[in-house]
């Protein structure tokens, strides 16, 4: 634990040791990020200034954060926010922590330059709000089956001043015929039996992660529901998991997106599935 008046260097070293002992993959980085955010002191200054002393309030907040992190709570939930593209999102356990690889869906929107987007399974609103932020002419409808997620997403939209162009709805798909220029979705795609790191498996909402025995059940059922709901778009982008490319491509072709393309993420894992109608 960190005593008031403790040196920042000692506090960081002690926290990093406890994190390493708890099995955390990036102990020193997590300690630095938490202390920097909670003390308001730049990370570089925290590291460079060996004589820096912590204010009692910062030391207390850091102790509490260290206690939480040792239980493998994600850094983003402890801080209550996560950066994604150019925006900062408020997050809590009702929504997944936005992942860097999910930014590929936003990059697809920049390529397509849509005037209207449907995002299915918006969670914190990360994709919808980043698209709204980066494409000022675009209107977005964003859905989630979780009331809690829609509360988080709507609060993010308000805080970011983007609520005029982003409409949220609880449910899977909008009701009534709806044509969009682009559909985007990061649906749950983790196979039920997959082991996940404690940060994910013990803290993030399972309903946003797991997609049945091979991970593609939710994607299949959402795609199957689109025809009946009258939801269409010339281009669709889906985030997928390792080894799901061929299966999801076949699903897309079966419902009319006849041209499919899989793009790998920075780790070389097939991550973005793009479907086009012709
Ligand atoms: N990429 C996330 C993970 O592996 C899963 C996100 C999802 O299912 N949509 O933890």
Sequence-ordered SSE layout with sheet pairings:
Layout: H1 8-21, H2 27-39, H3 43-48, H4 56-70, H5 75-79, E1 81-84, E2 87-90, H6 103-112, E3 116-120, H7 126-134, E4 139-144, H8 147-160, E5 166-170, E6 178-179, E7 182-185, H9 198-201, H10 217-229, E8 231-232, E9 235-239, H11 245-254, E10 259-264, E11 270-276
Parallel strand pairs: 3-4, 3-7, 4-5, 6-8, 7-9
Antiparallel strand pairs: 1-2, 9-11, 10-11
This protein binds glutamine.
Glutamine binds at residues 99, 186, 188-190, 200, 209, 239.
What does this structure look like?
With 278 residues, the chain is of the alpha/beta class. The chain contains eleven helices and eleven strands. It has two domains: 8-71; 90-276, Vaccinia Virus protein VP39 (Rossmann fold, 3-Layer(aba) Sandwich). It has helices at residues 8-21, 27-39, 43-48, 56-70, 75-79, 103-112, 126-134, 147-160, 198-201, 217-229, 245-254; strands at 81-84, 87-90, 116-120, 139-144, 166-170, 178-179, 182-185, 231-232, 235-239, 259-264, 270-276. Strands 5-4-3-7-9-11-10 form a seven-stranded mixed β-sheet, sandwiched between helices. Helix 8 (147-160) links the parallel strand 4 (139-144) and strand 5 (166-170). Glutamine binds next to loops.
Please provide a brief summary of the model.
This protein is 41% helix and 18% strand.
pLDDT < 50 stretches: none
Give the domain tally.
2
CATH C-level class of the largest domain: Alpha Beta
Oligomer: single chain
Number of helices: 11
By CATH, the architecture of the largest domain is named 3-Layer(aba) Sandwich
The assigned structural class equals: alpha/beta
As a percent range, the share of helical residues equals 40-55%
Q: Major sheet: order of its strands? A: 5-4-3-7-9-11-10
Task: Supply the CATH superfamily name of the largest domain.
Answer: Vaccinia Virus protein VP39
Q: Could you tell me how far the N terminus lies from the C terminus, measured between alpha carbons in angstroms?
A: 61 Å
Distinct ligands, ions and cofactors found in the model: glutamine
Whole-angstrom Rg = 21 Å
Shape: elongated
């Amino acid at each position: 634990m960190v005593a008031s008046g403790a040196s920042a260097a000692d506090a960081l070293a002690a926290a990093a040791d406890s994190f390493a002992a708890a099995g955390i993959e990036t102990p020193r980085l997590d300690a630095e990020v938490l202390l920097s955010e909670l003390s308001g002191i730049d990370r570089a200054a925290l590291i460079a200034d060996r004589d820096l002393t912590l204010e009692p309030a910062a030391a207390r907040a850091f102790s509490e954060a260290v206690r939480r992190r040792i239980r493998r709570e994600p850094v983003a939930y402890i801080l209550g926010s996560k950066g994604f593209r150019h925006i900062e999102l408020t997050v809590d356990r009702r929504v997944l922590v936005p992942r860097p690889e999910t930014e590929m869906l936003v990059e697809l929107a920049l390529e397509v330059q849509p005037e209207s987007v449907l995002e299915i399974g918006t969670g914190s609103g990360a994709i919808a709000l980043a698209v709204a932020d980066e494409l000022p002419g675009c209107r977005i409808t964003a859905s989630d089956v979780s009331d809690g997620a829609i509360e988080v997403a709507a609060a993010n939209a308000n805080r970011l001043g983007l609520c005029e162009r982003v409409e949220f709805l609880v449910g899977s798909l909008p009701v009534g015929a709806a044509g969009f220029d682009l559909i985007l979705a990061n649906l749950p795609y983790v196979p039920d039996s997959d082991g996940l790191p404690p940060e994910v498996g013990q803290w993030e909402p399972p309903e946003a992660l797991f997609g049945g025995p091979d991970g593609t059940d939710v994607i299949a059922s959402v795609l199957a529901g689109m025809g009946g709901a009258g939801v269409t778009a010339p281009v669709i982008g889906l985030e997928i998991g390792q080894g799901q490319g061929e299966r999801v491509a076949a699903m897309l072709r079966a419902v009319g997106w006849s041209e499919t393309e899989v793009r790998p993420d920075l780790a070389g894992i097939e991550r973005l599935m793009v479907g086009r109608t012709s």
